[in-house]
Amino acid sequence: MTLNQLKPSFMEQSVPVHFPRRRRRAYTIVGLLIALGGVMAFAITIGSVQVPFLTICQTLLSQLPLVDITPTWPSTTETIILEIRLPRVILAGLVGAALAIAGATYQGLFRNPLADPYLIGVAQGASLGAVIGFLLPFDWRGMGFLIIPVLAFTGALISVAIVYSLARVGKTLPVTTLILAGVALGAFWGSIVSYLIINSGEKMHGIIFWLMGSFALSEWSEAKIVLPYVVVGVAVILLYSRSLNIMQLDEEQAQQLGINVEKVKLILLAAATLITAAAVSFVGTIGFVGIIIPHAVRLIWGPDYRFLLPLSVLSGAIFLILADLVARTALAPMEIPVGVITAVCGAPFFLYLLRRKKRAVFF
Amino acid sequence: MIKLELQSVSVAYDRNMVVKDLTFQVMSGEMVGLIGPNGSGKSTIIKAISRVIPLYSGKILLDGKDVFKMPRGDLARSLGVVPQMSILPSAFTAFEVVLMGRNPHLGLLQYEGARDLAITWRAMEMTATHSLAERKVGELSGGEIQRIVIARVLTQEPKSILLDEPTANLDIRHQVEILDLIKNLCLENNLTVVVALHDLNLAAQYCDRLILINNGRVHAQGTPREVINSRNIKEVYGADGCVYTHPVNGLPAVLLKAGNSQHTKPRGMIEGGIV
Asked: Who among B87, B95, B122 is closest to A18 (CB)?
């Protein structure tokens, strides 16, 4: 029998594996979407003022066009829901999604399970930018709050641009050089940041709080700026998820399977870096999400990036919304930096997963 | 019909010229063996043809088209490569890895359809890997991985296949199995095969034509009988090899003797035929 003969006559039933899996994947995604909706609504109900779940749903629905619900609740409740809690939950979800998918993308690109969104200098660049913003002699609050995010974003991009140009060899971008250049430059920025913090006097508390990440100052305007970055970045990354699968072979094999490796690398790096920088610049360098969420998804649902990436988006959003909920309620009215919660609550869960699944190979 | 043509191809790593002014042709449906000592440039030639490394000068034509000017997807649809060491992501299943061969046939937004899955499954049947389909590749043996990679190449539906030492690290049974498989594919599907081989005996057994490479140049080419002879082996390998005729099929076969063999008495003959 020749290879040509097999083409037309083949029917699905001759392929016994792999078919049911696709439907199961669709169910998983739908399930997680529902869970995300539930977690968002739950997170909005909880706070210093308890709002009934039903009121939340009614308030949210009444904001939609064509829905007519007469308000039976005080307008302060509506303000709490729509102006305070909702933007905060949405921003937490966006940042969680961004960090998780960026982490998964970096791990795939570098074929390295230790990669996280901050591997090539994004976080340290953003931190330096933010710290400089804090230490500026004039009062940045007067400038409409925006100076720190702008400086953090710029710092992140400059940092990655430097790493990128240092790591480049001819027309190619070897991932090992990229990682090493990123780690070295990150250490360089990191020590400058440490020095600045020590000399920052009474601003030290604010800086450290920013570095550990917090959604305490979330507003609609911030969510609106982060949203397009995350949506576009996630869309681009999802578009290349099959390529990312094939790049799990080495680069040579990927090229021989028709992938333009250098181009795909560049596109994915740019997308993952942009969404990380956008997320980090408003809420600080929240750790742990980007490395642990993709691995948890791998442990539970397998390594296929076409599935791993969308699931990381959803799980990352759910995880960070819950982490922020703990951060603002655990010691209320005091806020705990959310970066503390992600590791304190996330690490035991991940270790439990690691033990229970006991998979020798999952990356 | 000429399938693959190298026109005075040179390849350099940094300033080190590894392949020099190399010219040869491969006809459609032919199985050609690249042989030569370590470092003679066999792997480099395979990499250059599959456009993984750039040329220093010269031209490589596949079906009359310049390999380096084709879109990569087009090249991957007509040329499949089995590399020497295939690093496979250990957590993926064998089926998922073989399915990757459909990549050049799919658009950016396209998902594999029933036909792609069927072709993948068929390729796994042809390479006898279908029983491994749900296994993780991290759990497979060297011979199984080699067959998985060949299945992946078949899934690309190429007209030509390059193989770089497909039998390295395999025991003799698996060596013969893999090369039988490739030879059959070549004959039945009229595939053009270029295979770099270490083992001169295997090369002589399976290839229609051999190209003996030395220091990045063609030293000799022709049928196994024309290429494998004591003079060529002495010149290229600097080793004394005894070339015999294979008792079953009359092809040349190389027997090696130890460099210090003057100290080794041919015991079997002296001690009364008991070996």
From this structure: B95
